[in-house]
Design a protein that fits this description.
Structural class: mainly alpha
Number of helices: 4
Number of strands: 0
Order of helices and strands: HHHH
Radius of gyration: 33 Å
């Protein structure tokens, strides 16, 4: 009887060891799974952040490129022009693309960046279509808004 009771205790202790080992194994696997999921979420977050940054840079590049084209149109603005002139047709296309680029910045950037970009757009629009008073420089007129836009964009992208 004592031998049998000893065998039961040995069996119970063995079973307890198996159960304890199984529980510990479960907890280790569960923690490893959670850690892997967190790492994957962080990786996806970083990838999304990098993608958004690349998209923003592309939009900034597009706006800067088209605004430079608009500035060239302002510099070459004839004193008299008609709706059929080459200058007008080219400028109309450039200003339409600049308008779209301005609106895309509004979607992707904080209001401060869009406000600065829009002020630059409005200055370009005025200069291109209405011209400037005699003696006023296109470069000097546009410099303040251009610099404010670039500074706002740099602050957000930095």
């Amino acid at each position: 009887m004592i031998v049998m009771a000893g065998q039961v205790w040995v069996s119970l202790i063995s079973l307890g060891g198996v159960v304890l080992g199984g529980v510990l194994s479960y907890f280790v696997q569960h923690r490893t799974q959670q850690s892997a999921e967190r790492a994957e979420q962080q990786r996806q977050g970083i990838a999304l952040s990098e993608t958004r940054r690349a998209e923003r840079l592309a939009l900034l590049e597009r706006f800067i490129e088209v605004s430079a084209e608009a500035e060239r149109c302002a510099y070459t603005r004839p004193s008299d022009w008609e709706n059929t002139d080459d200058w007008y047709l080219t400028t109309q296309d450039v200003m339409n693309r600049l308008w779209v680029a301005d609106r895309l910045l509004r979607i992707q950037f904080p209001q401060t960046v869009h406000d600065a970009a829009h002020a630059h757009f409005l200055g370009l629009n005025r200069t291109v279509w209405q011209g400037l008073p005699d003696g006023e420089s296109v470069r000097d007129y546009l410099e303040g808004n251009r610099s404010a836009f670039l500074d706002a964009a740099r602050e957000v992208m930095g």
